[in-house]
Automatic annotation (TrEMBL):
This is Xanthine phosphoribosyltransferase. Its EC number is 2.4.2.22. Belongs to the purine/pyrimidine phosphoribosyltransferase family. Xpt subfamily. Keywords: Cytoplasm, Glycosyltransferase, Membrane, Purine salvage, Transferase, Transmembrane, Transmembrane helix. It catalyses: XMP + diphosphate = xanthine + 5-phospho-alpha-D-ribose 1-diphosphate. It is found in: Cytoplasm. The gene is xpt. Residues 32-157 form the Phosphoribosyltransferase domain. Converts the preformed base xanthine, a product of nucleic acid breakdown, to xanthosine 5'-monophosphate (XMP), so it can be reused for RNA or DNA synthesis. 5-phospho-alpha-D-ribose 1-diphosphate binds at A128, T129, G130, A131, A132. Homodimer. Pathway: Purine metabolism; XMP biosynthesis via salvage pathway; XMP from xanthine: step 1/1.
């Protein structure tokens, strides 16, 4: 998505060769117009897939899931991050290891809202190591839901996330694919077609 790539170049800050800060427009201060366009783009890419729910992880995926679900006319769910899930709670849960924070946390989704007849589109802000999205795909499997694909706003293609998920046969659509980055510049995998 050309507008997104241009915005990353203009307002993103490359903190190191692996960390991109997009706090100015994506995940602290948020540009609502751009967010809605991102949602419309994901909706367009997956429109023919009869999506029944959009799923993300709190907190940084929520506004993209909201925009996508709004464009598709379906509800969205955000998986909750919890330290411990009590056995009495009726949830699907999976562990996620955060490489940036060096900790493992649980994500969970209530069994009330995810069912075997759901066709799920997962949306998130970043596809990096893939740990968070692998955790979420595990929850989809446990629920017996059909995963139609993953929409990532920004993919750091030099990290292993895409490979891990593609190995499982998951369709991935990323709106900006970063091939490499350093404080002197960002290189994208391909020029944006639209
Ligand atoms: P994963 O490594 O599991 O694919 O990424 C987990 C989460 O870490 C992403 O959803 C995103 O919120 C955060 N993350 C990963 N890499 C970056 C990055 O370069 N910049 C920012 N701002 N967040 C990131």
């Amino acid at each position: 998505m050309r507008e997104l790539q241009e915005r990353i170049v203009r307002d993103g800050k490359v903190l190191s060769e692996t960390v991109l800060k997009v706090d100015a427009f994506l995940n602290h201060q948020v540009d609502p117009q751009l967010t809605m366009k991102i949602g419309e783009r994901f909706a367009e890419l997956f429109r023919d897939q009869n999506v029944t729910k959009v799923v993300t992880i709190e907190a940084s995926g929520i506004h993209f899931a909201m925009a996508t679900a709004f464009a598709l006319g379906v509800p969205f769910i955000y998986a909750k991050k919890k330290k411990a899930v009590t056995l009495t709670e009726e949830v699907y849960a999976a562990p996620v290891h955060s490489f940036t924070r060096q900790e493992t946390y649980q994500i969970s989704v209530s069994k009330q809202y995810l069912h075997a007849d759901d066709r799920v589109l997962i949306v998130d802000d970043f596809l990096a190591t893939g740990a968070a999205l692998v955790g979420l795909t595990q929850i989809m499997k446990d629920a017996g839901a059909h995963l139609v694909g993953i929409g990532a706003v920004i993919e750091k293609s030099f990290q292993e996330g895409r490979g891990l998920l593609e190995k499982e046969g998951v369709r991935i659509e990323s709106l900006a694919r970063i091939k490499s980055m350093s404080p002197s510049g960002i290189e994208f995998m391909e020029p944006a077609a639209i």
